[in-house]
Amino acid sequence: MVSEKLQQLQSLFTGMEQALIAYSGGIDSTLVAKIAYDILGDRALAVTAVSPSLLPEDLEDARIQAAMIGISHEEIYTQEMANPNYTDNPVNRCYFCKSELHDQLKPLARQRGYLYIVDGVNADDLRDYRPGVKAAKERGVRSPLAEVGVTKAEVREISKYLGLSCWDKPSQPCLSSRFPYGEEITIAKLQRVGRAEVYLRRLGWQNLRVRSEGDTARIELPPAQIKDFIIKNDLPVLVQTFQALGFLYVTLDLEGYRSGKLNQVLQPELLANYG
C-alpha cells in the first residue's frame, strides 16, 4: 500500500511542469519537497514562511532538510502578526495565517512561472478542524498527500523508506496553537512559550507542548512519559526556569498530550461555520 501511494505521488508530480512547495520543514511538507525534487529537479522550489510563530530552531531544521534533499529553498517573511483577525486568536485564526501565506506565495509563483503551489496537508488533516485548509483551497493550492489519501502514519513510512532523517520527527504546528482561543497572541508570548519548549527538548523531551494561558504554563507529554518526567527532572529548577521566562505558574497536564486538545471547547455549529 505504501509503495503504491508513493508511486501515485510520483505520478502526480510527473504531471506537473513546475511546483512551488509551501515548506515548513515539518515531516509532511518535507516529504512533499523530497518527492517533488526527485521528479522535477530544479523545477521544484521550496519556500518557507518566516514569522514569530516559527521557532528559529525549526527554521534551521528546515534549511538543513532542504539542503539534504537538494531542493532550491527560499524564505519569505509573512505579516500575520499585523492582522488583528489573527492576533485576536479567533477560532478560525489559522484561516488568516494561511491566507497571508498563500497571498504571498501566489504572486511569487506567477512571477517565477510555477504552475502549481502545493502544501503538506495529509489525509488525516482533512478529518480535523483545519480552517487553514479552506484558505489554501480558496487560492487553488493542491495537497498531494491528501489527494492520494496518505495518512500521517504513511507519511512516516514513506519518509523512512526514502531515507529522510526526519521521518520520526514529532509534529510541530506553529506556536500560536499553544494559546486558548480568544487570548491575544503577541510576539512576547510566542517567544516565551517557544523558549520553554526548547528548554524541555534540550532536557530530552521531544514530543511535547507547552500550552500557555495567561501567566500559566501547562506542560503536555505523552501519557507514558509523565511518570518519568516527574522522577527524572529537577522540578524546582524547571519551575525557576519557566518563571525566568515570564510564567508565574507551571503545571503538568495529567491527561497527557493530545493533538487538537484546545479544539475540544468548540461547538459543532461553530466548526460548521468556520470549517
UniProtKB/TrEMBL annotation:
InterPro entries: LarE, NAD/GMP_synthase, Ni-pincer_cofactor_biosynth, Rossmann-like_a/b/a_fold. Pfam families: NAD_synthase (PF02540). Residues 15-80 form the NAD/GMP synthase domain. This is NAD/GMP synthase domain-containing protein.
